[in-house]
Write a structure and sequence with these properties.
Layout: E1 13-17, H1 34-49, E2 52-56, H2 76-83, E3 88-90, H3 96-104, E4 110-113, H4 120-124, H5 127-134, E5 139-142, E6 166-168, H6 170-184, E7 190-194, H7 199-210, E8 215-218, H8 223-229, E9 233-234, H9 244-256, E10 260-262, E11 266-270, E12 279-283, E13 286-287, E14 292-296, H10 298-309, E15 313-317, H11 330-344, E16 348-351, H12 354-362, E17 371-372, H13 377-383, H14 389-395
Parallel strand pairs: 1-2, 1-5, 2-4, 3-4, 5-6, 7-8, 7-15, 8-10, 9-13, 15-16, 16-17
Antiparallel strand pairs: 11-12, 11-14
This protein binds adenosine monophosphate.
Adenosine monophosphate binds near residues 197, 319, 322, 354 and 355.
């Protein structure tokens, strides 16, 4: 793997694709800066070598060109503070101002370009847009694992303008190393924990994992589709009625492959989708018609915890319940704590990005698991065994 360790950046201008798609509150304060912290070692290495850094990223999903709400200007102060240096900003990611600012950048300085997705050419993977971006730097570094599964202009297409001068940043290299370890050399027993809202979103991953894991734990909203498929009464719980057959066939496949598929047996049942709902634990296949399961119950938490604690490799993607509300966060917390215990006993635990990462952050347990990935979709696609365009572009 060609990483930035292979190069001294002295006198060079590095164009670095980062993933600064961070959550902002209504006052534009960053509510989770893991992605900025994650890119810091790469930026610091380039600066320490005596290079200059031009950062490019997207933020959110702007639909109609430049929009104040999605401006990366909002993160400049936070980024400057984090890096301990004043970060310059270009109002546009291409054009005269960006060119001028990039050209005048001195060793040790950092320039952040405006949101790449203000141009629809970015997501389209437009070649001439990529070429304009490429003209801003001498070396291309990709440190944006979170968008590595996209063949966008700045994540993949751009690499062709840097033959021999393209590298993985430290975050990207660490993400790939950890994902690779789980995918190809898992110490056994290997347990995958899947949760979240829908089975349909994670179908390919579940199928792929059945060929690799010893235990597959399924919790969260998606579990009710399995319970319903077996003929259970799930009340108003989340369900995908068009996926019932599929749920049964996954159960069958797991059996054929010798994988222990573990579903929750009880639920925390609520009378409404609200933090102040009336709740009780009960069997998840006998939920009254006007109530719903919004978390796994205590019995399932214990059963899941036992399996997790006896595992040597753990991959976790998706919460066990509506963990954003404290009332329904118990199951997700119990799983997180079991993952922490297993890690303390020597297991390798990889937490998939997105909501599982948010949950671990909420419980302040990020330091107690082996690795929290910054990639949601990217990690899932990697785990499905697919080649990520952002990775391929550097490797070829
Ligand atoms: P995903 O993006 O598919 O990982 O789904 C994450 C979302 O699933 C979170 O916002 C959770 O609140 C939600 N979720 C988890 N369990 C349930 C449940 N039992 N009922 C409704 N939503 C759920």
């Amino acid at each position: 793997m060609k990483t930035i360790d292979d190069l001294n950046f002295s006198g060079k201008k590095a164009l670095v694709r980062v993933d600064f798609n961070v959550p902002l509150d209504e006052h534009f304060n960053i509510t989770d800066d893991n992605r900025i912290k994650g890119a810091k070692p790469t930026i610091e290495k380039i600066i320490k070598d005596g290079g200059a850094v031009i950062l490019m990223s997207h933020l959110g999903r702007p639909k109609e060109g430049p929009t104040e709400k999605f401006s990366l200007r909002h993160i400049v102060d936070h980024l400057s503070e984090e890096l301990g240096t004043e970060v310059q900003f270009a109002d546009d990611c291409i054009g005269e101002q960006a060119k001028e600012k990039a050209a005048n950048l001195k060793a040790g300085e950092v320039l952040l370009l405006e949101n790449l997705r203000f141009y629809k050419e970015e997501e389209k993977g437009d070649e001439s847009f990529a070429e304009e971006l490429a003209a801003l730097g001498d070396i291309y570094v990709n440190d944006a694992f979170g968008t590595a599964h996209r063949a966008h202009a700045s994540t993949a297409v751009i690499a062709k303008f840097f033959s021999g001068a393209k590298y993985f940043g430290y975050l990207m290299a660490a993400e790939l190393k950890n994902a690779e370890k789980v995918l190809n050399q898992p110490e056994r027993p290997f347990t995958a924990i899947m949760g979240g809202a829908k089975v349909s979103d994670k179908l390919d991953l579940i199928e792929a994992l059945l060929g690799r894991v010893d235990n597959l734990i399924i919790g969260g909203g998606m579990a009710y589709t399995f319970v319903k498929a077996r003929g259970g009464e799930i009340g108003q719980s989340l369900v995908e009625l068009d996926k019932l057959d599929l749920a049964n066939s996954l159960v069958k496949k797991a059996k054929e492959k010798g994988v222990q598929l573990i579903l929750p047996t009880d639920a925390q049942i609520a009378d409404k989708f609200s933090d102040d709902a009336q709740v009780y634990d009960g069997p998840n296949d006998q939920i009254p018609s006007n109530e719903m399961g919004l978390d796994i119950g205590a019995e399932s938490s214990r059963e899941f915890g036992d399996v997790i604690r006896s595992s040597k490799t753990i991959l976790w993607n998706g919460p066990m319940g509506v963990f954003e509300m404290d009332t329904f966060a118990k199951g997700t917390r119990a799983v997180a704590e079991a993952v922490v215990d297993a890690t303390k006993q020597g297991a390798f635990s990889l937490i998939g990005g997105g909501d599982s990462a948010a949950a671990v952050t909420k419980f302040k347990l990020t330091e107690d698991v082996s690795y929290v990935s910054t990639g949601g979709g990217a990690l899932l696609e990697y785990m499905e065994g697919r080649e990520l365009p952002g990775v391929k572009a550097i490797n070829e």
